[in-house]
Design a protein that fits this description.
Layout (H helix, E strand, L loop, with lengths): L5 H10 L3 E4 L8 H11 L4 E4 L9 E3 L5 H7 L5 H14 L5 H7 L4 H4 L4 E2 L8 E3 L20 E2 L3 E5 L6 E5 L2 E5 L2 E3 L7 H12 L3 E7 L3 H8 L8 H9 L4 E4 L6 E3 L4 E7 L6 E3 L2 E2 L5 E2 L2 E3 L1 E9 L5 E2 L9 H20 L3 E5 L9 E6 L6 H10 L9 E6 L7 H11 L2 H4 E7 L12 E8 L21 H14 L13
This protein binds flavin mononucleotide and manganese (II) ion.
Length: about 500
């Protein structure tokens, strides 16, 4: 069941005893991070800090920080169940590319009813803060060497000045003063493309920032949807209830009516960039200062009793690890639409998603593993994958021990490791220069004729079924408990 608001989600988690209210006075400078970091790494509850130094507003954090809560936000009992729904949906519409499918959605009567729709009721505009002052919000300074406080869950809403299509992305915002922030849309992201288009037209770019509301909105804003697909439409589809929109007061954009805070403003593309950072980032390292556009606030509005939704990032696992796992699970049915040979995909949390993709494929022809690597390097944000490991369909990519065993046995490094170059994640600090670098593909599959292997490939060791059954029947009498699975037992 879809939540209507952030407050609804908080109540639902409280009911399931998976949210803790903290009444103790805490400092938004580092203290909330230290608490949230310990809690998320222990698989603990969502937190609502009701007494935050220097602000009247409570802070909600770690809402996404467990599989159960992430699934509940998606309206499902588990991520597997949510993925099955996506799979069922993919199968109900005629075959087409994923992008075509999504673009077709609004035209299908069944899905048209989930399109964002205008409303007059705007809780997010209950209160207009005059004068607008970002320093009144409980914005976290996450880590000791951060360049200042950062809004970490802003839903940054912009429109393509040519097509008029909306985009929503999470791009962190560093607070410079009461009405000025950084706008950290990395060069590969859709917000940055919109900015580039405004720059070419020498036009001021309206930008609306929504915070809070139904947490599914924040998740869809993080999800790597194709450029041109409206995140709010996808949110409506996933929650089976359209997102209600209201016009902003000072700029020509709409925002989700039920969100908690709205920061309206603009980016002037003729203005010089400004240094942003440092920031303790997803990778577990600080991202150093880099120049980014500046956002100017024209209005701040909020609900009567708003909650400030935020997160911290840092050395994994963190809250966003579960958001990423949800992306991984829900993307798989969409990827298999284009790549039927794809059996499973693991983007390990420890590798920060972009550093490693492990894919299991049903290999059908020589060079197939290489074809999969090249396809993934050309698919959406999977292009950032620094390392791709391909294993056979009978290997579980989520089992690191199994992957290591298979891959290290199966590779001849010179034959099976492929190097190439391309764009890398903006957060990659190891590439010799920012944004471009090399990539490695490891073909850990068993080699078949035509794959430069000039002798027989050895079979796996497996006990024969007759012996296994005889020992099963004997087992209880051997006094050997627990019954450990013999190696070679099929999964
Ligand atoms: C907590 C969090 C913070 C993020 N911060 C940024 C950021 O500062 N800049 C950025 O470009 N992407 C950031 N991202 C990733 C983007 O939100 C993500 O790549 C998204 O798919 C971009 O949407 P777009 O394709 O519509 O541009 C962040 C993600 C999360 C979960
Ligand atoms: Mn997008």
């Amino acid at each position: 069941m879809a939540f209507n608001s952030l407050h609804d989600a908080i109540c639902a988690f409280e009911e399931r005893r998976t949210l803790v209210r903290i009444r103790e006075l805490v400092d938004p400078r580092c203290e909330i991070t230290e608490i949230a970091d310990r809690v998320v790494k222990a698989g603990g509850p969502a937190l609502l800090f009701e007494n935050v130094k220097g602000s009247d507003f409570p802070v909600a954090i770690n809402l996404f920080g467990s599989e159960a809560r992430m699934a509940q936000i998606l309206g499902a009992d588990s991520l597997a169940a949510a993925a099955r729904e996506v799979e069922a949906f993919v199968k109900t519409t005629p075959p087409s590319s994923f992008l075509e499918k999504l673009q077709m959605l609004p035209k299908l009567a069944k899905f048209g009813s989930y399109m964002p729709r205008p409303t007059k009721h705007a809780p997010c505009q209950d209160v207009r803060m005059t004068p607008p002052d970002l320093t009144r919000l409980p914005i976290l300074t996450c880590w000791p060497d951060d360049g200042g406080p950062f809004i970490t869950f802003p839903m940054v809403i912009t429109k393509d000045p040519v097509s008029g299509l909306r985009n929503v992305g999470i791009y962190r915002m560093q607070i410079y003063d009461r009405t000025t922030t950084g706008m950290h849309w990395q060069i590969h992201k859709v917000g940055a493309r919109h900015y580039q288009y405004y720059k070419e037209r020498r036009e001021r770019m309206p930008v609306a920032v929504a915070i809070g509301g139904d947490p599914i909105l924040t998740w869809t804003a993080c999800a790597p949807l194709p450029d041109g697909v409206d995140e709010l439409m996808i949110a409506g589809l996933l929650r089976r209830k359209p997102v209600d929109l209201v016009p902003c007061l000072t700029i020509p954009l709409e925002v989700p009516a039920e969100c908690d805070f709205v920061i309206e403003g603009y980016v002037d593309p003729t203005e010089p960039l400004r240094d942003e950072g440092p920031f303790g980032d997803h990778t577990g390292y600080y991202t150093l200062q880099e120049p980014y556009p500046v956002f100017h606030v024209t209005a701040i509005t909020h609900r009567r009793h708003p909650l400030y939704l935020t997160t911290i990032v840092g050395r994994p696992p963190m809250e966003d690890g579960w958001m990423g796992k949800a992306v991984e699970r829900l993307s798989l049915p969409l990827l298999t639409m284009q790549l039927p040979e794809l059996v499973d995909l693991n983007l390990p949390v420890e590798a920060c998603f972009h550093n490693l993709a492990i894919v299991a494929i049903k290999k059908l022809y020589p060079g197939h593993a290489h074809k999969i690597m090249h396809t993934l390097w050309g698919t959406g944000q999977l292009m950032f994958s620094k390392t791709i490991i391909v294993v056979d369909h009978d290997v579980n990519p989520h089992n690191a021990a199994e992957v290591l065993w298979r891959v290290t046995n199966n590779i001849d490094p010179r034959r099976d490791v492929l190097f190439t170059d391309g764009p890398v994640d903006a957060l990659d600090h190891a590439a010799p220069q920012a944004l471009v670098g090399s990539k490695m593909g490891i073909d850990g599959t068993r080699k078949i004729p035509g794959e430069a292997h000039y002798r027989p490939w050895p079979p796996d060791i497996m006990m024969d079924v007759g012996t296994r059954h005889r020992i099963d029947a004997l087992w209880d009498r051997l006094g050997l408990t627990p019954a450990t699975a013999a190696h070679g037992a099929p999964r």
